[in-house]
Amino acid sequence: MPVPLYQAQAELFRTLGHPVRIHVLELLQDGPEAVSELLVALGVEASSLSQQLAVLRRAGIVVSTRRGTSVFYELAASDVTELMRAARRFLTEVLADRGDLLAELRSYETPSARL
User: Fold this and answer.
1) CATH of 5-114 among 1.10.10.10, 3.40.50.300, 2.30.40.10, 1.25.40.10
2) 86-94 long-range contacts, Cβ below 8 Å, gap at least 24?
3) What are the residue ranges spanned by the domains of the chain?
4) pLDDT tens track for 20-62
5) How far is Cα of residue 96 from the mean position of the Cα atoms in its chain?
6) CA triplet 39, 42, 48: central angle to 5 degrees?
């Protein structure tokens, strides 16, 4: 029996429901990144990053490729970028009275601010 659309959507949002995963997706919007670069940008333990990348990979949200001794990750589809932008727009509207969070959201408007 096929999974209902609402159930598949709920599973997608559960997959996205971790701050490290969201941060990874934000970083990957500018293109592929090596795991070593993600570790530096995120400031998390390698085991934690590996676990979060595995969740995103299993869900088909990111893909990985090996280049020499490095593993690179990238978004599986450009729609992920649009989803992240839509989430920021939504939060900007909903949280307009929360100046601190709004300032952080606005910092993502420029690609260099994500690094």
Assistant:
1) 1.10.10.10
2) none
3) 5-114
4) 999 999 999 999 999 999 999 999 999 999 999 999 999 999 9
5) 23
6) 65
Strands 62-67 and 33-34: unpaired
pLDDT in tens, 83-99: 999 998 888 877 776 76
Place of tokens 């649009």: 82
**Backbone torsions φ then ψ of 96, nearest 5 degrees:** -55, -30
Output the six-digit token pair for 82: 């649009």
48-57, long-range: CB < 8 A, 24+ apart? 48/20, 49/20, 49/24, 52/18, 52/20, 52/21, 52/24, 53/24, 55/15, 55/18, 55/21, 56/15, 56/21, 56/24, 56/25
Three-state secondary structure call for residue 75: strand
